Amino acid sequence: MRQRTGYRHILIITWLVLTTGCQGPSQNSAPTPWPADYLPSVIAMTAGADATSTANALDITGLGNAIPTDTAVLPATEPPYILPAGTSTPSPEPLPAVIRILAPGPLSRESSPLNLRAYVVTGEAGNTRVELLGEDGRLLARKVMRLTSRSSEGVYVSIKIPFEIEAAAELGRLQIITEDRSGQIHAQMSVHLLLLSVGNDEINPPGSLVERCFLFEPLPGASVSGGTLAIRGEMQPFNTQPVILELLDQYGNNLGIRGLTFLSIDKQEFMTTIPYKVSQPTEARLVIRQGDNRIAGLMYLYSQKILLNP
Predict the structure, then answer these.
(1) Which CATH number covers residue 116?
(2) Would you say residue 11 lies in a domain?
(3) Which residues of 33-60 are buried (b: 16+ CB within 10 A; e: fewer)?
(4) Positive or negative, the Cα torsion across 225, 244, 220, 279?
(5) N or C terminus of the chain with fewer C-beta within 10 Å?
(6) Do 66 and 114 sit in the same domain of this protein?
(7) Angstrom distance (rounded) from CA 172 to CA 111
(8) Average pLDDT over the chain, rounded to whole?
């Protein structure tokens, strides 16, 4: 009798394992604390180890109130958006960034005033803002200029930026932002600095002067139809903060959004889509941006214009 009971327990345990072990993650698993501005998005998990690697991405799109709250993970061997073998697009020739900060380089030690040297491609005529932020995000200095570049080389900028800090030293972010005629941000490039109240400057070499984002598709000015924008490109993130891809109309209204999380800061390929809905041909700006992991605000922004059709 005791032996039969033992067999029965084994059968029951085996049945439970077989029927529950294949059901996948529980619907009641802990939610991932995504920012509220991820509407109706997102997420992707990408992986890449070098300049030729392709990101493995899993995208989840929510509609209406069905916004996903869980981060889903696929095994690295089963990526749904990986490029088929032999079809990976060769890496393009590196393009100069539209904003190139020549000096000071990353983590340079700077006392007031700091000397900024940069090339800025403005595209459309608009304001160019140079801003210096403290480690708590407070604005230490701002200069607004009206620049118009007449070549792909851009406009050479050389200015002194005075600032004051109370501490002996603190982390800061120097950022250059260009805007189009409507006031939307066209591009942004930033660099972290160590700000000194007194002391000698130690200027490091510039960081990368090539554009961190390159899109194979869509090309600038492309016309897209069908309600879904396919995006394929290369990205070298500044950090592992989410990279946000967003469609904005000329008034800054959101037409679609997607988030990608890169698991390394190496350059890597990615593929994703952004669903959108328009009732007529609409000129839009595709914005790709990444936040700063050390000081509140953006670290990088790249954009290009496209035409969205129903």
Answers:
(1) 2.60.40.2550
(2) no
(3) ebeeebebbbbbbbbbeeeebbbbbbbe
(4) positive
(5) N
(6) no
(7) 11
(8) 76
Omega before 33 within 30 of 0, i.e. cis: no
Tell me whether residue 230 is in a domain.
yes
Whether 17 is in a domain gets the answer no
| Residue found by looking up tokens 């190139």 in the block | 100
Q: What is the pLDDT of residues 29-80, one digit of tens each?
A: 333 333 333 332 322 333 333 333 333 333 322 222 222 222 222 222 223 2
- Residues 131/240/305/98 CA torsion (nearest 10 deg): 50
- 3-state DSSP assignment of residue 130: strand
Q: What is residue 92's DSSP assignment?
A: P
Q: Which two tokens stand for residue 246?
A: 């967003």
Spatial separation of the C-alpha atoms in residues 54 and 74, rounded to whole Å? 15
Q: What does the pLDDT read at residue 10?
A: 37
Q: Find all residues with CB under 8 Å of 211, minimum gap 6, and list them.
A: 94, 95, 96, 97, 98, 302
Rounded Cα gap, residues 44 and 266, in angstroms: 16
Same domain, 109 and 175: yes
**Cα separation values, 68 from 72, 133, 215, Å:** 10, 34, 27
pTM above 0.85, yes or no: no
Tokens at 279, concatenated: 């009732």
Question: Would you say 121 and 209 are in contact if contact means Cβ atoms under 8 Å apart?
Answer: no
Residue 65 placed within a domain: yes
Its domain, for residue 108, covers 99-196
